[in-house]
Design goal:
Layout (H helix, E strand, L loop, with lengths): L7 E3 L19 H13 L25 E3 L7 E3 L10 E6 L11 E10 L5 E4 L7 E4 L7 H7 L7 E7 H5 L14 E11 L10 E3 L8 E5 L2 E6 L11 E9 L8 E11 L7 E2 H4 L3 E5 L6 H7 L7 E6 L21 E10 L3
Antiparallel strand pairs: 1-13, 2-3, 4-8, 5-6, 5-7, 5-9, 8-9, 10-13, 11-12, 13-17, 14-15, 14-16, 14-18, 17-18
Length: about 350
């Protein structure tokens, strides 16, 4: 069935998804591999870093100046130093300073990271190898405290070099999973690609359009979307991804490798209740866009959307959860999904 309003049409492709963080979000299975790598690289076996209050980041010093980091931000760095690298305390150097927003406590960042054993000169691991940056939250419950201190106040677009020891980062036992003794030195490079936006709207803002015929209508209460009504929608969902603008925003456009804050509702086509709704709890979600973490429907449709926009997506299984569905998310196999999404903020420069 053809819908009025000239929705954008994107061919479907086979894709999978699952549930990674505190809220149900549409994602692919690729991202948890990167998240697992990040957890391995940045978390000790016992779940904490150094408990020595003297193990703080020092930007005025020493070992970091003996390390040379070259290459463009966003590409795998070339790191050179003489081994064994001697490190007395964690130190930080901003190799490239970005002009974007500052990363502050509790905020999310999208980063690439690289680790090398400073004692042996052997690489430990890197998100560049998977080709996918990873989101992290600047909080001691997510990162060892010395790294929280090292990254706090650094800006979007920056490359930051940290020199430390396995004892400082991973705790008194080092990290046996990475074959690191507590006395081993570490060289860590962070590329801060995006910082969670702080300038966030409370709702869509722009030129509004009516929902075209043949699509579900929005049910709202006190200005918040509560559910979708399929009583007048086409009985059979479309076979290709439909992108229907409902409000055209006037803010900056969301780009690839950005962090986007949004409210959204998701509902299986033809059903009566949403499987997730951030409007209901008043807590917009922030996701990395265009890095392969979200289902293809989101990554294809939302890149380029201006802040302030509201969009409806009708996502067939091939660009949603496919043949498997999501048992935990309450999404059946081969389900077509409908999303209403408000773009409230973006880290795009």
């Amino acid at each position: 069935m053809e819908f009025s309003g000239k929705p954008v049409t994107v061919a479907a492709a086979s894709l999978r998804g699952l549930i990674p963080l505190e809220v149900f979000i549409p994602v692919r299975r690729k991202l948890p591999v990167v998240l697992a790598l990040t957890a391995l690289l940045l978390t000790s076996a016992c779940g904490s870093g150094s408990d020595d209050s003297s193990a703080k980041s020092d930007s005025s010093t020493s070992a970091s100046q003996a390390v040379k980091v070259t290459g463009a931000i966003g590409t795998k760095p070339t790191v050179t130093f003489s081994t064994p690298l001697k490190v007395s305390k964690t130190s930080t150097e901003v190799v490239t300073e970005g002009a974007g927003a500052k990363l502050t406590a509790g905020r999310q960042a999208l980063v690439h990271l690289f680790l090398e054993n400073g004692t042996t000169g052997k690489p430990i691991g890197s998100t560049y190898d998977q080709g996918t940056p990873t989101p992290l939250t600047l909080d001691a419950s997510n990162l060892p405290q010395p790294l929280v201190t090292a990254l706090e106040g650094k800006t979007q677009g920056s490359r930051v070099e940290v020199t430390s020891t396995a004892g400082d980062v991973y705790g008194k036992s080092g990290n046996s999973s990475l074959n690191l003794k507590p006395t081993d030195s570490l060289v860590i490079v962070f590329d801060i690609l995006a910082v969670q936006p702080s300038d966030v709207l409370t709702g869509p803002k722009g030129s509004a359009k009516s929902v075209p015929s043949g699509l579900p209508s929005l049910v709202t209460k006190n200005g918040k979307v509560t559910t979708l009504d399929f009583s007048r929608a086409a009985k059979n969902p479309p076979k290709k991804l439909q992108v229907i603008p409902l409000v055209t925003g006037t803010g900056q456009k969301a780009t690839k490798q950005s962090l986007v804050t949004m409210d959204y509702l998701g509902q299986v086509y033809g059903t009566k209740k949403p499987f997730n709704n951030t409007y209901a709890d008043g807590k917009p979600a922030t996701f990395p866009l265009g890095v392969g973490g979200l289902i293809k429907a989101w990554d294809e449709a939302l890149v380029g959307m201006p802040v302030g926009s509201r969009v409806m997506l009708v996502a067939p299984p091939g660009v949603a959860y496919g043949k498997e569905g999501s048992k935990d998310g309450g999404i059946p196999k081969n389900a077509t999904l409908v999303f209403v999404i408000d773009i409230l903020g973006s880290s795009s420069q």
